[in-house]
Amino acid sequence: MGIIGFVSAVSPAERIRFILGEEDDGPPPPQLFTELDELLSVDGQELEWKETSRWIKFEEKVEKGGERWSKPHVATLSLHSLMELKAFIEKGTVKLDMEGTTLPQVVETIIDSQVESGQLKASLKEKVMYTLLRKHRHQTKKSNFRSLADIGKSVSSASRLFSSQENGSPTPSHRNLTSNSLSDFSDKPEKDQLKNKFMKKLPRDAEASNVLVGEVDFLEAPFVAFVRLQQAVMFGALTEVPVPTRFLFILLGPKGKAKSYREVGRAIATLMSDEVFHDIAYKAKDRQDLLAGIDEFLDEVIVLPPGEWDPDIRIEPPKSLPSSDKRKNMYAGLDAPQMNGDTPHDTGNGGGGGGGGHEVGEELQWTKKFCGGLVLDVKRKLPFFASDFVDALHIQSLSAILFIYLGTVTNAITFGGLLGDATENMQGVLESFLGTALAGAVFCLLAGQPLTILSSTGPVLVFERLLFTFSRDNDFDYLEFRLWIGLWSGIFCLVLVATDASFLVQYFTRFTEEGFSALISFIFIYDAFKKMIKLAHHNPINANFNSDLVTQYDCRCIPGTNAFSRLPQPVNITWASLTKHECEKFGGQLVGEVCDFVPDITLMSFILFFGTYTCSMGLKTFKTSRFFPTTVRKLISDFAIILTILLFCVVDALVGVNTPKLIVPSEFKPTSPHRGWFIAPFGGNPWWVYLAAALPALLVTILIFMDQQITAVIINRKEHKLKKGAGYHLDLFWVAILMIVCSFMGLPWYVAATVISIAHIDSLRMETQTSAPGEQPKFLGVREQRVTGICVFLLTGLSVFMAPILKFIPMPVLYGVFLYMGVASLKGVQFMDRLQLLLMPAKHQPDLIYLRHVPQRRIHLFTFIQALCLALLWILKSTVAAIVFPVMILALVAVRKAMDYVFSQHDLSYLDDVIPEKDKKKKEDEKKKKNKKKGSIDSEMEFSDYPYHDNIPTIKISMEMEQEPMLADKSVYSEYESGFVLLRVAGAWLPLVLWH
């Protein structure tokens, strides 16, 4: 058998794989600004290049009126224009990495190349040169241009500008025109370019791609050139914005095809805005690489039937763009992204995400060393300590401080009041303020994740109430007993830190995280309405008011049964003239139809409550509205909560209704006169109580560990794009230390607050400042720093001295902020999305990734189990059994583990994070080594251009044939009488034809 034929051409897919798979240590290719200029005539005489369209991500056209840009829209191309473009690239001039410093030099090099190759007559050199160096007029300049419909008629004036001899050589007038155009050309940007506000849409390192198309009457065949400069060069007024040009595409052709040339120009401009072709254009080595990029683009193009779609309709840019990483990874030979390590599947942007949880990084590795995790946390966070203060120097930090401060101070007052009622003021509002300031400030200064906000929680309040009742019934000193529980619990937490117990956090999957997060959010929402209902109960509305009987409505005070016994001495009292407070003080009785009702307060309070919530939601999303410049919208969005609170404080003051106001203690002293600022550890209780305190301390330890670590997992989720790493062990260490300190001072215990921490993260979100027109701003991450948290808690401590100012804030406004925080923290929770699916017909359901791969009945079953667990937790926390609430949260992990017997790992990989297996890392390492040895043959074959590769034998050439330079060095020889095989050469698959 012999080798008769060999197909030497590398397939387009292989070319793209080589291009995108090349390792490049340099920065990624810069963003491109693409401008389409068309050759038009002014007043039927002078020719100029007029900007008609531009691209960054989406196309913008100059409207036919010529006075404004269109809205950004998805570029719709004809398939014919793409095929014509491919033909032009095949036949035209392609110069990659051309050296050039001025536009005339570049143009002359292109023309000389075409003359040498015989594509352009030497006699036409001056004419083409003159045409290409005509002035460029951009949309920022106003001129008397004809409509685009008159292009074909007006360009004929070019014939009057060119008069040639019989031999075709240029006359002196031609040379004068060319020299004039060269003298008029400047490489420096013009004033209009420097003042162009469109520069704000471009990153600093952006480069330009200029597309020049037009028709002239002196050419018989199209003049086509694609140029990539070795270094981007500033070509003066060539581009609308002052950015250097890297790419140049030129298309000049005979008359009569202006529309066709324009469509080809739009095609190449759209290709340059495509992320994959953009990378190929920067890395291409020759013409064939560009053609392979066009073929790849054609493979992804969707064709719409002409009778079913009007091409004049402009398609609005989508809110979320599909990632190009999948296309790039496919051709780069990389494995498709896997969501949970063991279960590979499609990770397209179908919405909703798949796993989306935390990854088991080094923060959660079990070191098996004493305090090993704590030491690693300190080493990880210490290099960022200085930047944690520098990174806060931004106006956004101020809005975050004010927003979180108001939420924190409201929570401190509310919790302090409830704690005072539960403990007979042994702990009250002032203790809550002091404890919040002390614990929060120290934690934000020294902890591993300073974005976490500490606060008192509902389960802690339940425990305090039960502990106080138990101490009172058994004649124990409550604060001393509590001190020893805090000491034991702090010691237990330190033991957990020393043994790296936080590695158990990796078993907290989305099922557990979302269940806990949703529960806390529902508590915030429930408490906000509960407080408003309580306010309405104290200030009831007269629902039976009849305006016709207004003359009969009155309320008067009369002597009560024991009225005279309350008077200090017999006096004459005019009971009808007493105020309500005096009447109740002297034992009088209120009689009348309206005595129980308070006009307007409840109604005004609900207006403030719902108004605050609605306005907060509206202003927070204002940055995506169509009004005002981007900077103003961003500023309003950042200060949304503060502006809302100020607005409704003003509304409340203008209306003048006596709504309930924020009450802040004005003196710095313990709430109860029977205690001080230091709790003695001995003397109040029997000695055995100090040991017995370890038992309830176990429950508190579980509560602290679960509350702290679940919130930390939610904060550190990968979708928040945190750059400075987590510190689970370091966080728990400081929570334990602060718990011991607060126990000695008789202050409440503090742990991570889920909802307020999420609100803190949301208030510090960073997005791209240079979003392309039509493109939604990209989420860059969170402003990670310590200053906002420290300032919030210092302000909370100083609130005692700000009572004269804070007393003007209505409580309904703060309840509205509570409602906003609860609802906002549910945004993006997959559990809420799945709950909504229960009420949606299939045809109206969004395109979520798990809906594509998991049967709907399995999704509903998963949601039902999660909702059932949430309901049980809600019932439990509302009863006396709430003391075992932390144990039940821990039980969620067991429930999730049991779900492995109900759902397949495939389904769980889409609905939840797959629980990490014991030897998972070892298996993955072995798999990577195995794939490395195989050279990822299977992966490459999967993406081959040949659809029948499963049945095609592979062949490697024997050692005897190794002298051939193209052939592989390792070989296994296999014979076939005839047929079609694939040959592996230099890591690529090439077709080989064999026969006798």
UniProtKB/TrEMBL annotation:
Residues 369-915 form the Bicarbonate transporter-like transmembrane domain. One of its GO terms (cellular component) is plasma membrane. One of its GO terms (biological process) is transmembrane transport. Residues 31-311 form the Band 3 cytoplasmic domain. It catalyses: 3 hydrogencarbonate(out) + Na(+)(out) = 3 hydrogencarbonate(in) + Na(+)(in); 2 hydrogencarbonate(out) + Na(+)(out) = 2 hydrogencarbonate(in) + Na(+)(in). It holds the Pfam family Band_3_cyto. Electrogenic sodium/bicarbonate cotransporter with a Na(+):HCO3(-) stoichiometry varying from 1:2 to 1:3. May regulate bicarbonate influx/efflux at the basolateral membrane of cells and regulate intracellular pH. Belongs to the anion exchanger (TC 2.A.31) family. This is Anion exchange protein. It comes from Oryzias latipes (Japanese rice fish).
